[in-house]
Amino acid sequence: MGLKIGSTSIGTLYLGATRVHEAYLGNIKLFESDWIDPNPLNLPANTMRFQFGDSSYDPTQETWHSNVTWTQVSASPNVWDYNNPDTNWGATAVGGAPFKDRFTSARNQVDVLGANFSGITYTDSMFRGCSALHSVVYFDTGDVTYAVQMFDGSGIVSAPAYRMANCTNTFAMFRNCTALASAGMLNLSASTNCGDLFRGCSALTSIAPIDVRSAQTLDSAFEGCSALTTTPSFITSTSLRSMGAIFAQCSNLRTVGLFNTHNVHSASGAFRSCTSLQTIPAFDFYSLNTASGMFMSCSSLSSLPSGIDFYSITDASNMFKGCSALASLPSGTDFHSLTNADSICWDCSSLVSLPTITSSVVTNVDYAFQNCRAVNGGALAMYNQLVGQSTPPTNHYSCFYNCGSGTTTGAAELAQIPASWGGTGA
Hints:
The chain is mainly beta. It is 4% helix and 16% strand.
C-alpha cells in the first residue's frame, strides 16, 4: 500500500500486484493493491507452461536450441512445459528469441498458463510475430531489463499487469497486437524508451495506469489505437522529452488526461488525425520547440484551454491544418519564438481570428492561413508585421489565400495584401 500527497509517493510497496484500487480523501490519494502469487503452478526455474489448441501438436518435433527441453504435462488438454536454463530469452540469446515467429498456425491457439521467470533478464522479441498466441497470464518479470518488441505482432487479446521496474527499454513491447483489447497496470518505471508501446493496437479500449516516470520518449506510444476513447493515467516526470505522434490516428479519442510535459521539446503529430477530439487539458508546454502537425486533421477540435503555452515553439508547420471546427486560440496564446509557420492554419474554415505571433524571426509562412474564410480581420496587420521584420519571410506562397474571403472585413483586408502573398491586391 502506498500514500501519495501531491506529487510525492510515500511507502509504495510492490508485491506483484495485478489489481490496483484508488481512493481520494481531500487532496490525499491512496493506493491499495492486492498481492497475486507470481508462480501459482509452482513451476521450476526458467520454465513456461503452454496449452496448445491443436491436440496433435508436439513441440519436440520442431528444432530448438540444444539446451531447451519440452515436457508434456497433459495430453487433453495438450499442455507442455518449456524449460530453458539461459537467463536471456531475447533476440541476442544463442539461437535467437525462442518463440519468435513460431506460433502462427490459426488452428493451434496458444495460451501461456504460467511461468517461473525469476532471474530472466532479456525478453526482447520473445513472442514477436506469434499470431496464434491468444492469452498470457501474470508472471513475475521483475528481473527483466530489456523487453523491446516482446509481444510485437502477436495475437494476444489482453495483457496482464506487469511489474518491470528494472526494465530500461520497452520500445514496441505490444506494437501491432491488433487483437489486444485491454491491458493491466504496467510498472515501467525504469524504462527510458516507451516509444511505439501500443502502436497499431487497433482493438485496444481499456488500459490501466502506466508508470513511465523515467521515460524520455513516448513517441507513437498509442499511434493507431483507433478504438481508444480515453487515454490511460500516466505517472510521468520531467524526464519526458518527446511525445511525437503519441496519440496520432486515435480516431475515437475523446478524453485526454493530464501528464507531466514540462520538459517536452517535441510533440510533432501528437494528436494528428484524432478526429473525435474536441479539446485537450492545459498541458505545460514550457519547453516545447517542435509542434509540426501536432493537431493536424483534428476535425472536431473546437477549443484549447486557457493558459496553454506555445511561447517557445519554433516549428508550428501544419500544427492546426485541417482543424475545421477551431474558431480561435485562447486569448494570450503567443507564438513568440516561431520561425516556421508553413500551413499552420491551412483549411481552418471556422477560424474567426488569427493566432498571436510576436516573433520577429519568422522565415516560412507558405499556405499559413489559406482557406481561413471566416477570419474577420487581422490578416492585414499580420501581413504588415511579417514584412516589417528585419528579414521578411522568403517563403510566403499562398499565405493569405482566401483568408477572410467570407467576411466583409476580411475581404477588404485581403484586397490590400499582394497576390504574391495570396491576397487579391496588386
